[in-house]
Design brief:
binds pyridoxal-5'-phosphate; 2 domains; seven-stranded mixed beta sheet; 13 strands; four-stranded antiparallel beta sheet; alpha/beta
């Protein structure tokens, strides 16, 4: 008898999200757990987005605008300095969905995808679920992408390279010089998908901004999201920026109505609230500085981050630390599935949450 499921799906391990708050309440009886596991914005959505969502409720019997016309118009206006028109944009049900589009649209069954390891696990999962070969290239010892090695790993069958900058789960970055060298030395028939989910948190001018590389758009797709700085992870909105023709090909595989009506309305309102964005950046930079200096003070190894999370390394299995923190009401993210069994990834929170986390960490035996 033929197996019902294809071999690639048989081997696929589902994505493991950060533990939901409700699960910790239910299983550990912690009344008010603090989630620092999924790189969400601790300030929540913009108040303007919340207002718009309330009034959007009454329109929920209508299908959304499948082409996200007004959201694209607004985004294009917002991104005007980068020479971006609505036809340079695709909107997805989170960036996650656009990663799927990229593989489905451009990678043929006998072609492969190259990415770093560890890097955002969805590149791997999307590759496996579409039965495409995935070539992974180890990061450098400092957990930064090794773009020279990525370039070397490219072969005749490579169609797409996924680069996360800053990278998840490490928070590390490559610089303009490394990126431009990579851009100019990769074969021209390869699409570079530069995932900048955390771009707004970067405070170093040496780090490339993918939106500035308009001349390369015929083979560059830049991904951004409303899930992080815009505080709308629950609604699922992300966007891709590229050349008109690559966008129109991806549009062919996009399911109709992939971005819901409330998500479109909230994303537009969030774009209008740049005060909320500035506040979110500020609190993150302050928190990042505080947490990194406290880790240093307590001798906890950490990887300097350019994101809204920090990877810490206990030098021994992090499981017991993770469990102990859970009991104290702090949900962090184990990264064993990224082959980093000694590490935890911690989302930067509000001042109070950060102080509480440090207090909890220092109360753990031998932390
Ligand atoms: C590097 C990277 N890309 C993309 C995403 C997914 O973003 P979205 O919520 O827009 O699907 C994440 C989320 O954690 C991420 O870390």
């Amino acid at each position: 008898m033929k197996p019902l499921v294809t071999q690639n799906i048989e081997s696929l391990r589902p994505y493991e999200p950060g533990k939901p708050v409700e699960e910790i309440q239910r299983e550990l009886g912690v009344a008010d757990p603090i989630k620092m596991a999924s790189n969400e914005n601790p300030l929540g959505p913009s108040p303007k987005a919340i207002e718009v969502m309330k009034s959007a409720c009454e329109q929920m019997h209508y299908y959304p605008d499948g082409g996200c016309y007004y959201l694209k118009e607004k985004l294009a206006k917002h991104l005007k300095p980068y020479d971006i028109e609505p036809h340079n944009l695709i909107i997805g049900n989170g960036t996650n969905e656009i990663i799927e589009f990229v593989i489905r649209t451009f990678v043929a069954p006998d072609e492969n995808v190259v990415t770093g390891d560890p890097s955002f696990i969805i590149y791997k999962l999307a590759g496996i679920s579409h039965n495409r070969e995935e070539i992974t290239v180890p990061l450098k010892d400092n957990l930064c992408y090794d773009l020279t090695a990525v370039n070397r790993a490219i072969n005749d069958k490579t169609k797409v390279v996924f680069l996360a900058n800053p990278n998840n789960p490490t928070g590390r970055v490559f610089d303009i010089h490394e990126f431009e060298h990579f851009l100019t030395h990769t074969p021209e028939d390869i699409i570079i998908c530069l995932d900048e989910a955390y771009a707004e948190y970067v405070d170093n001018s040496e780090i490339p901004n993918g939106l500035e590389y308009a001349p390369y758009r015929s083979r560059l797709i830049v991904l951004r999201t409303f899930s992080k700085i815009y505080g709308l992870a629950g609604l699922r909105v992300g966007y891709g920026v590229s050349d008109k023709s690559l966008i129109s090909y991806m549009d062919r595989v996009r399911p109709p109505f992939n971005v819901n009506r409330m998500a479109q309305a909230a994303a537009m309102a969030a774009l209008d609230d740049q005060t909320h964005i500035r506040k979110s950046i500020e609190i993150n930079q302050k928190g990042r500085k505080y947490l990194q200096s406290e880790f240093k003070r307590f001798g906890i190894k950490y990887y300097p981050s350019q994101t809204n999370f920090i990877l810490i390394d206990f030098g021994k299995p992090a499981d017991s630390y993770y469990q102990a923190l859970l009991k104290k009401g702090y949900i962090t993210r184990p990264v064993k599935n990224y082959n980093l069994p000694n590490c935890l990834r911690i989302t930067i929170g509000t001042d109070e949450q950060n102080r509480g986390l440090i207090q909890a960490l220092t109360e753990l035996p031998d932390a």
